Amino acid sequence: MDDGSExxxxxxxxxxxxxxxxxxxxxxxxxxxxxxANSVKSAFESQVKGCDxxxxxxxxxxxxxxxxxxxxxxxxxxxxxxxxxxxxxxxVKPNLDYQExxxxxxxxxxxxxxxxxxxxxxxxxxxxxxxxxKEHRTSVHHFISRKFGKLAETKSxxxxxxxxxxxxxxxxxxxxxxxxxxxxxxxxxxxxxxxAFTLEKENxxxxxxxxxxxxxxxxxxxxxxxxxxKDKKAITYQSMVVKKVTPDRMQKIESTLEKRxxxxxxxxxxxxxxxxxxxxxxxxxxxxxxxKNHCGDTTNLPQGIEDAVHNVKVRGFLNYYGPQRFGKGLNxxxxxxxxxxxxxxxxxxxxxxxxxxxxxxxxxxxxxYFFESGDAKGALALMPDFKVRERMMLRxxxxxxxxxxxxxxxxxxxxxxxxxxxIHAYCSKIWNEAASYRIATYGLRVVEGDLVFCSDNENQKSxxxxxTATEEADDIYLINQVVLxxxxxxxxxxxxxxxxxxxxxxxxxGLQFCKFRVGSLQLNIPGCYRHILKYPRxxxxxLLEEDDFQNQGTGxxxxxxxxxxxxxxxxxxxxxxxxxxxxxxxxxxxxYYF
Length: 594
Prior knowledge:
Elements: H1 5-10, H2 15-24, H3 27-45, E1 56-60, H4 64-77, E2 81-86, E3 89-94, H5 96-104, H6 107-119, E4 125-127, H7 134-148, E5 152-160, E6 166-174, H8 183-191, E7 194-202, H9 206-217, E8 224-226, E9 235-243, H10 247-252, H11 254-258, E10 262-270, E11 281-288, H12 301-315, E12 317-318, H13 334-342, H14 346-353, H15 362-373, H16 376-382, H17 388-400, H18 404-412, H19 416-442, E13 451-453, E14 464-466, H20 469-473, E15 482-486, H21 497-508, E16 517-518, E17 523-524, E18 528-531, E19 533-534, E20 537-545, H22 546-550, H23 559-564, E21 568-577, H24 582-590
Antiparallel strand pairs: 1-3, 2-3, 4-6, 5-6, 7-9, 7-10, 8-9, 11-21, 12-19, 13-14, 13-15, 15-18, 16-17, 20-21
Helix pairs in contact: 2-4, 2-9, 4-6, 5-6, 12-24, 13-14, 13-19, 14-18, 15-16, 16-17, 17-18, 19-21
């Protein structure tokens, strides 16, 4: 193609950054940039030492924020290039470090490494593919130390796979900043721009919203941080922080987002990222329509609702992971994908990922075509644009083929948060089943071998205490203090029948020797602890008539007025601790018989 887009495909460009360059650069400059990148790539492949190509000007950009965005977009889209500034002029030249590293590893890994290096995500790591040659690994260690020793450090990790083969991989991480580094440290801190905002979304998954935001802003999905994933089938609000985007730039895209069911509020500067589990809890406002008792009518409805609400206030609810944790598919369950990944059955994991539902919408037509034909390119042409992770996977499978390497590359093509979602789904399934077994076996009494936190600080994952026989006899602990582990490599299991159940369940799934690390996919699953029982806070309700709600009325109705309504509805408001599910709390209320 004469516009150079064919070359872009061969470089496996990040779609979001490419879209951003389309907005920031003229067509002529884009074409020149594409051609320059392809020329550099050809020179590198011909092993032209030092590459005698000079530099290319992208034009003058007086605005500092614009320059920063283009710097990042070019480096992320073309890791084969480096950018630099002369006054207000932006220029690019060959990345000779990329050329050197690609000769030690591969073009693909070199590109991913420089993308990681440029993103500078705090506490993130990059792992090269396993390498059996110690001499070769030493060369990679020396290269990174020599070129980027002040910024990053390397370490080798040895791991035996399920097949019994010992594999050694090199992991790179950023060095911690020291207070004695003076001016250099302050300069680095100033270059890290963080913007906080509140994300409002409707009928959209959190990860889909992030993928769209990253495309519009020209940053990586990993540049966004958040404290948890919200429901799709709801209007949700959640705090987020994005790196390398100024508040002004964030506010400029507001109108673009609304057509996708996204709004942003309270945009403001921030000092750092937020992390999963960092929030203290969630507030919920729910409307239940056409409310009836278990006999299907409205007899004793007001009193019955009052009793159901009181029951969950006083007794709490079993703290199951809700259905959102497992995805919505009937045929493809996220936990099955997660199990295949833990067992490193890559071909099966991809097959399960693309298992279609029994319907003929465009998404399932594309899945069915791939499921039956294995034609990634054809399926990619059929897959709708909004299915971000499916398209990423298909693009990688088309490039690397239907092989073990291709499957691994496919999973690595989607963001880390999306990859680990499936393993968390499986581990959550085990937790739910363990909780049911625990209650069925011991009821609501605390018994010897149960686990409780040593302190009120749930962030101290390792600080759990095993209840002794004496403590059981003296009723030292209450059931709401008991926790169960979500499987991982850094958790303790109960030393009673529940612990035996965990061992049997994992062995039955083929995970008796699982290390809960998938090195090839850069996945690490330490595990965590979760209370069996939880309680809603500030729970209130109103029983309303449909017409009154439509007219924005807020007053309570008397019992007689409610019973005269053909369509009474229940308005609920309550708060839950982080990682608790409103659907689970609601189910406990709704199953109360009256």
